[in-house]
Amino acid sequence: MALQTGDVFGRYELVSWLGRGGMAETWRAQLVGDAGVTKPVLIKKVLPEYANDEAFISMFISEARISATLSHGNVAQVFDFGRVDGEYFLAMEFVDGQPLHRVLKRALKTGMAALPTPVAVFIAMEMCRGLHYAHTRINGSGAPLGIVHRDISPDNVLLGYEGQIKIVDFGIAKAQLLRGFKTAPGVVKGKYLFFSPEQARGEEVDARTDVWATGVVLYELLCGRLPVEGPPHVVMMRLGRGEIPAPVVLRPELPKELNDIVMKALTPDRNQRFESSHAFGDALAGFLYSNFPRFSAMSIAHLLRVLFRGDLVQEGRELPVPGSFLEEMKSWREQTATAEPAALAPVERQPTRRVTRVARPSITETTEPRALAAPSGMSRQMVYGLSAGGLLTVGACLWLLLDSPASQPFTGAPPPTPIRPSVAVVEPSPPPPPTSPPVTPEPEKTASADPIRNVASEPPPVSEKEAAAVKKMKDAVASAIRRNQAADAVYHSNHCEELYPNNEDCRLLKRQVNENFFAERPPPSTARKSAGELDITEANILDVQMRVQGLLRSKDMEGALQLANDCAAALPKLAECQLILGVVHGRLKNHRESEQHYNNFLMLAPPDHIKRARVLDILSKQAESKSP
């Protein structure tokens, strides 16, 4: 019979059901003692389907024996172990707070691109302290227990409303002492996205595997995304080769000292990593207290209380947060913001001007649509704006390039239907480059009589949902303009028009962004000449792509490869250049080089890049073709 809230389970009274994992379900409970004394605990009960699995129960008992020996401020303690009605359970320390993965998710939802630097570093530092304690445990004879967690991830780190940071679930830890328990060769456990290279290869692991996983967690906290993503076989392949972009690629404002610390923890050769979690934690402590000397655990407590204030209120609790911390958090949000909350002042409406919509030219045409382009030298958010659907001219045309026959190193896989969104052209605007003929507006006609639709006429009705969404994006653009964040402004204005192409306010946003950031801007200083004196810049990557496409169609492979290489040399951190190189090498049947550049693209491109899924599919087919 299934357990319910209020049931008595051995010496414990079940308070609330918390969740169900792959091997056990968890309950919040309380130990009921004499004279009404109670103690909150977490009950972890083996699922019924595993109750008769001797190998699993043996591992669970091993977990209990290992965990019961651990007593450290950064490790959740095990108080009790036993069986009730034939079901094994652990009674563990209850941490009043939230798992780290939920904290990061809530921070992103509130407008941060990642956790603030001191917060992320402090969390990783405390994790290192708990892990080093476990790694160095010895038995009564002084022999090391050889404990390795092997499943470090944000799911297994708890943050408390009082600032505690606790590692939980040593369930797949390995202690050589316990019954000679040894994982079978080649068996890998845990979450593959956090695997060390040696773990991905199925090799024997030691404490340095936990150093790697802690480095991955810190990377995700600092950058808002994992260093390697994709299906298991792609991740394993890239981890084994150590193909990881430095954190500064995604977050350029990070100090070099911190970037170097993270990359040392993520060195593929374990002999070159930090030799212990203690050494890793010391390096983080040195950075933290040199740059943020007053940071403490209470900052973690206050952050949680702000992020989860609604949850606490629903529970009838309201934990105090000082005003000084709210000011500090405001500065953090401004430093890591992806979009400001909708409470900001809306964008003032500009006088109505004539705006036309022009159909996107086909891949064989040479006319280049005039879309908003961020200046050369912008940070990761600029690349995000260019790649993730912000500047649709780039994403759509690279979609066409990648799906052309020139890019297909494999046969038998039908390409997806190309996406061909339209692009807004604002008039008046700067003339197009000399290589592209200007787009001349036709005399005004009705929408039904002319493919170029005049939108200065009566706008279509707007739903309440659309109006609210557009207002939020207008607020985000207004905030970006006030903070002089061109990349954010470009992204939100383009995203507005992408979602609501017929909304006049979205078109006005593009005009406003253009006037605020790109009017009379000097030519980029990081240009490189190639293939007929073509300027290679982030602003004209579309022209580069079209030129490569033309060279491939004319079978000028040498010229296409030269232009693709020049693109990567001029703009080494632009994902689109790596994508073009992958396509060209695929056409040349240089599969190894093509795979390398596709992987580089995945490292540099944001998670929702329009071509990420297609590239992963190509890499998957290439991996299958290598299988015996």
Automatic annotation (TrEMBL):
It comes from the Bacteria. Keywords: ATP-binding, Kinase, Nucleotide-binding, Serine/threonine-protein kinase, Transferase. Residues 411-462 are annotated as: Disordered. ATP binds at residue 45. Residues 428-441 have a biased composition (Pro residues). InterPro entries: Kinase-like_dom_sf, Prot_kinase_dom, Protein_kinase_ATP_BS, TPR-like_helical_dom_sf, Tyr_kinase_AS. Pfam families: Pkinase (PF00069). GO terms for molecular function: ATP binding; protein serine/threonine kinase activity. This is Serine/threonine protein kinase. The lineage of its organism: Bacteria, Pseudomonadati, Myxococcota, Myxococcia, Myxococcales.
